[in-house]
Amino acid sequence: MIHDPRATSALDPVTGRERTSLGLALNLIGLAVVVFWFVTLAPGRSATVLVLGGVALVAWLVRQVLRAPVLRLVCALLMVVLGALTMEPTDALTIAPVIAAVIALEADHDLPPWLGGASAFAAAVIASVGAALAASSIGYLLGALGGIGIALLVGYSRRQARAAELQRTELAERQREAEREQERAALFADRARVARDVHDVLAHSLGGLVLQLDAVEALLEAGRVDDAAGRAGAARALAADGLAEARRAVATLRDPAEQATPVTVGAAEPATVRTGGAPPARIARSRPEPVGSGGLEDLVDAHRSFGGVVSVEGDVRLAEVDGRHRETLVMATREALSNARKHAPGAPVTLVIARVDGSGRSVGVSVSNPVALPGHGLLGIRERFAELDDGSSVEVASSADAFVVSMRVPVTPDDRESRS
User: Fold this and answer.
1) How far is CA 381 from CA 88, 152, 251, in A?
2) Quick one: which of 88, 99, 81 has its CA closest to 31?
3) Fewest CB within 10 angstroms: 15, 126, 185, 324, which?
C-alpha cells in the first residue's frame, strides 16, 4: 500500500494501478503481527468476536492477492465494518485492518473520493457505539478516532499524489503527441516543398526542352543539320540539368543537408548552339548553382535562348538581397518566365528590379507578360513567400492584355549600411 518509486513494481492487470513489492511486503508484515497477537490473545474472548475479527483479517489477506476491483472493494468494506465491530473487544487490535482499508479506499483513484470518507465515518460511528456500550475510557475512544482520522488523511494525500502523477503522465503524453504532430507537420511541409521544387524544375526544364526540340525539328526540315545537332546538345544539357535538380529536390526529403549541396550536372560548361560561322551562342543553365547565387541573369539568358523576348530593368544580380530571399526571388521568377513561355510563347516579357519604397527597406521584382492562366506554379510562388514570414509579399494582377507578378522582399540592415 505504501508507494516507493525505488521498489520493483507491476501494473494491476485489471485496474492498471501500480502495485509495489515493498507495499505488499509491508501489508503482509503488518497482517502477520496482528494475526500473531490476535491468536495469542484469543483465549477468553467470545466466539463471535473471534469469528468477526478473523473474517476481517482474512479479508485483509485476500485483498492483497486479488485483482478484481469489485472483490477488492468488498474485502475493504468487510475490513472496515468487522474491524470496527471488534475493535473494543480486542483492545483496539483490529483497528489495523480498519486503518488499512480506509487508506486503501481513499487513495484508490478509481473509486469515488467520498467512499473513503464514508467508510471512515462508518468506522468512527461503530467504534464510538462500541466504546459507549462497553463504557471504555475517553482516551481509548479519542485514540481510536484519531487513528481513523489519520488514516483518512494519509489516504487523501496518496490520492492527491496519484492524481498529480496521472496529470504529469497525461501532460507528458500530450507533449509527445504535440511533438509527433509537429514532426508530421514538418514532414508534410517538406513534402509540399519538394513537390513545389519538382514542379518548378519540370515546368522550366521540360518547357524549355519542348522549345529546343521544336527548333531541332525545324532546323532538320530546313537541312541545317549542324545547327540541329547544336540544339539537340543544348536540349540534352537542359534535360540533364532538370534531372539533377529533380534528384536534388527529392534528396532533401531524405537528408535536409543535401539542400545546401551544389548540384552536379552532366556538362561542366554551359551548352552551346552552333549557328553557322557565328560564335557559339550560350545556352543558359535552367537553374543557378547553387540556388540563387547567380541572381536572375541565368534565367534571363535561358528565357532568351528558348526563343523568348525579355526586357530587363535593374540589377539582375540581386546584389542587395541576402541568399535566402534571393533564392525565393529566383525560384518565383523562373516560374513566372515559364508561365510566360507556356501561355504566350514568343510574346515580350518585362522584368523590373527596383527599390519599391522611399526608405530603401525593400527590393521589388515584377514580371509582366500577356495574360496567363492560374495554375500550380502561382500557388507555389505564394507558398514560397508565405514561408519567409518576414513581410515579404507577392501580388498577382491581370488586366485585359497583361499578367503581372509583383514580388517584394526586405533588404537586410547590413546591405543597406554597406551601400549607404
Assistant:
1) 86, 67, 21
2) 99
3) 185
- Structural domains in the chain, CATH included, are 9-136 (no CATH), 298-420 (3.30.565.10)
Do you know the residue count of the chain?
A: 420
Query: What angle, 0 to 180 degrees and rounded to 10, lies between the N-to-C axes of helices 47-65 and 21-40?
Result: 170
Rounded to two decimals, the pTM is 0.49
Q: Give φ, ψ of 272 to 5 degrees.
A: -125, 155
Tell me how far the alpha carbon of residue 179 is from its chain's centroid. 3
Q: What is the pLDDT of residues 380-420, one digit of tens each?
A: 788 888 888 888 888 888 877 788 888 999 886 655 444 44
Within 336-391, strands assigned E span 348-355, 362-369
Look at residue 9 and give its three-state secondary structure: strand
In terms of Cα–Cα distance, which of 236, 233, 230 is closest to 205? 236
* Calculated CA dihedral for residues 17, 98, 93, 143, nearest 10 degrees: 120
| Residue entry with cell 557565328 | 278
